[in-house]
What we know:
Mean pLDDT: 86
Strand content: 35-45%
Number of helices: 4
Amino acid sequence: MNSSIRYCSLFISFIVLLMVQPAFGRSDGEWIADLQSNCKVWNPYPKPRESVKWLGKCINGKAQGYGTLEWYQDGIRTASDIFKKNAGTLLRNGKIVSVIDVSNVTLSIEECKKNRRNKGYFDSYRVIRADVSTQIDLSHSSAVNEVLSMVQKYAWSKCPAKSFFSPKKDVFSNVKAKLYLDGELVVSASSSASTIDGTGEPSWGRYENKIKDRINKENKKRVIEEKKKIREQKKREAAKERQRKIQAKKEKERRQKEEAINRFNAFSKKNDVNGWPSVEELSINPFIYERQVVGLKLKFNKMLSATKGIFGDGVVVSNIPKGLFRSKARVVLAGKVLGNTTIKTRFGGEEILPHLKYIDAYFCKTWSCSGIIIAK
Length: 376
């Protein structure tokens, strides 16, 4: 492979590594406040409809020291960060910071290859092991980041070797970090180039944190279960609401029926109604009820004179108050039976119809006249 192609390939690889962002990478964050205490914490990775609850001290409006920071989305707790003394992290002025004593991390070199032959060219490579005290909580990105910084500096001091593709600069690359807790490998990461003096920012790729992954898995499972509970609760509430509406409807119908019956009884009593014949029965023989007040459910058709009108299929009612009817309407009518009367038809003939004297009328609000139930 010629040198120009080799350097181009190395440069592309370097750019790709820089694009790999670990869980603790930088982001455009924002301040987020506890809805109850208004205590603020820094949120490096804002999400829609997110809120927090800080259970700890608040100084000058910002979370401070040790405590529990709970994260919520749409009211569901998605994560809990616990900050304990000697665990490696705390909140300072609302931001998570690492406070790891170097005595809690033991570093050692597993591999140190300064001139490793790799795909046709020579490069450096080193593997650093970090045995971390079990007090340290490596579920926090800031704690892991601090240990990785220690690993990087340790590699610079114990296995110095310049990067092949940056021979004129004091630059290292190819550092693999392996973090152990009580003999178990829990975090592994590989870095791209970073400066020897420590002023550069290493970019860690191929990052794996078993502790964080386990917690994320548990959180995800809990969130799924919580959402399921919420859905089931909503279903129960919806079923209760449907049942409540059904019962309310039945109660409304019962009350309306009771009011309609009471209205009928009051109408009958007020007007001394003696019977409720059908129109057909009254048409055949109105004299059965002569001089008696009867009640009928009828449709008003039109006025024959200022005080006389025709109802239903052929019932003439006289003595109607002037202007009482201005349009067709359904009514419950109380009238004294006078017998029969003769009216002229539109074809020039005559027709004999039952004749009532107007006593009172209840105007129906619906076509079925459900506001007053005629109970015979």
